[in-house]
From TrEMBL, chain A:
Pfam families: F-box. This is F-box domain-containing protein. The gene is ga04427. It comes from the Eukaryota. InterPro entries: F-box-like_dom_sf (IPR036047), F-box_dom (IPR001810). PANTHER family: OS05G0320100 PROTEIN, OS07G0120400 PROTEIN. SUPFAM superfamilies: F-box domain. Residues 73-110 form the F-box domain.
Automatic annotation (TrEMBL), chain B:
The keyword Transmembrane helix does not apply. GO terms for biological process: jasmonic acid mediated signaling pathway; protein ubiquitination; ubiquitin-dependent protein catabolic process. Residues 16-75 form the SKP1 component POZ domain. SUPFAM superfamilies: POZ domain, Skp1 dimerisation domain-like. It comes from Eleusine coracana subsp. coracana. This is SKP1-like protein. It comes from the Eukaryota. Gene3D superfamilies: Potassium Channel Kv1.1, Chain A. The keyword tRNA processing does not apply.
Length: 191, 174
């Protein structure tokens, strides 16, 4: 998702912050809600793009085109709202054309999308492999599979515990925050 | 021209209204069915559309209107029950089956329905056609979505821009 955001929205834009807060914040809250407090797993949410797309793009094949999809932004919004809440859905839609991109990143649209899909999928969990090591384990199949490297924490020498998933405060740059460590929270900054 | 279905159910006294398509075809339909359209509802409540008058719909051709009315007639009884809280599971399953079948149509017809449902403000139909299009594009890549929906091929500039966006998703190629 962060890559998706980097790709489509300037990093300092207000829209981008909204996306991060609204979409990611919601997913993280919702995903965390499904696990018990004692579980040594922590859950994270995000969006990704599929690898097949770029290859597709370069082919540039043509096919007999039906008349183009009609309608206003409102009507397009109604369609996109009904996409499944999977990590790849909105990023893919955002790459269809500029108009779709603008719509997908419209704060109002994101709020509506969030309100409509109250039960997002579980994207993966953090596995406490050793006392010093957390690994992100994705649970979805491609193209919705988030590569482990995206969310795994660097290995440390001292023991750590997992505090939870948080989003940065409004106005801060960066991505998913994960508190880990004995005495001080540590941030996993998504790149 | 034949109306898709006249009010010949068990209520012989049902009020009928006439709708006139852009190509001047007249459709006689139960007021309750036509009233699924928010746009038409007020006119009908005011007593319009009855007798020889008819309500002209300059934005909807007869083929599309016929399809729209098929939907309205099927959904009117449930709508009259206030969303059919006491509908049986069989009734609901039947409506669902009808809906699925209903949008199993040519894309050009679907596009006409999108516009008509919007212009006539038929909420259920708007939702149904939007869902259909969403189902058509879900799980597809951006380029596949463009093809599916009949977008022209991207210009070289558009393509370059899209490729550049794509390249940003480094980890997604793993």
């Amino acid at each position: 998702m962060f890559e998706a955001l980097e790709a489509t929205v300037p990093s300092r834009s207000r829209d981008r912050l909204l996306v991060e807060q609204e979409v990611l914040g919601w997913e993280i809250e919702a995903a965390l809600g499904c696990i018990g407090p004692e579980a040594r797993m922590n859950v994270v949410a995000g969006y990704s793009l599929d690898s097949a797309s770029a290859i597709e793009m370069s082919e540039g094949r043509t096919s007999p085109a039906p008349a183009s999809l009609p309608g206003s932004d409102d009507m397009l919004g109604e369609i996109l709202l009904r996409l499944p809440p999977l990590p790849s859905a909105l990023p893919r839609a955002s790459l269809v054309c500029k108009r779709w991109r603008r719509l997908v990143f419209d704060p109002q649209f994101i709020r509506r999308f969030r309100a409509r899909h109250r039960t997002p999928p579980l994207l993966g969990f953090f596995y406490h492999r050793t006392v010093t090591d957390f690994v992100f384990v994705p649970t979805l199949d491609p193209p919705d599979r988030i590569p482990p490297a995206c969310f795994s924490l660097p290995q440390h020498t001292e023991s750590r515990r997992f505090l939870g998933c948080r989003l940065p405060q409004s106005g801060q740059n960066g991505g998913l925050g994960i508190g880990a460590g004995d005495d001080r929270p540590e941030m996993l900054n998504k790149t | 021209m034949a109306a898709p279905e006249s009010g010949d159910g068990n209520n012989g006294a049902a009020r009928m209204v006439t709708l006139i398509s852009s190509d001047n075809t007249r459709f006689e339909v139960e007021a309750a069915a036509a009233s699924l359209s928010q746009t038409l509802q007020l006119t009908i409540l005011d007593g319009g559309g009855g007798g020889g008058d008819g309500i002209p719909l300059p934005n909807v051709d007869s083929a599309t209107l016929s399809k729209v009315l098929e939907y309205c007639i099927k959904h009117a009884p449930a709508a009259a029950n206030g969303g059919a809280p006491n509908a049986t599971a069989v009734d609901r399953a039947e409506l669902e089956r009808f809906d699925n079948e209903f949008v199993n149509i040519d894309q050009s017809v679907l596009y006409s329905l999108i516009m008509a449902a919007h212009n006539l403000e038929i909420e259920g139909l708007q939702s149904l056609v939007a869902k259909k299009v969403a189902d058509m594009i879900k799980g597809k890549s951006p380029m596949e979505i463009r093809r599916t929906l009949g977008f022209p091929d991207p210009t070289p500039e558009e393509q370059a821009e899209m490729n550049a966006h794509m390249l940003e998703y480094g980890w997604a190629y793993e």
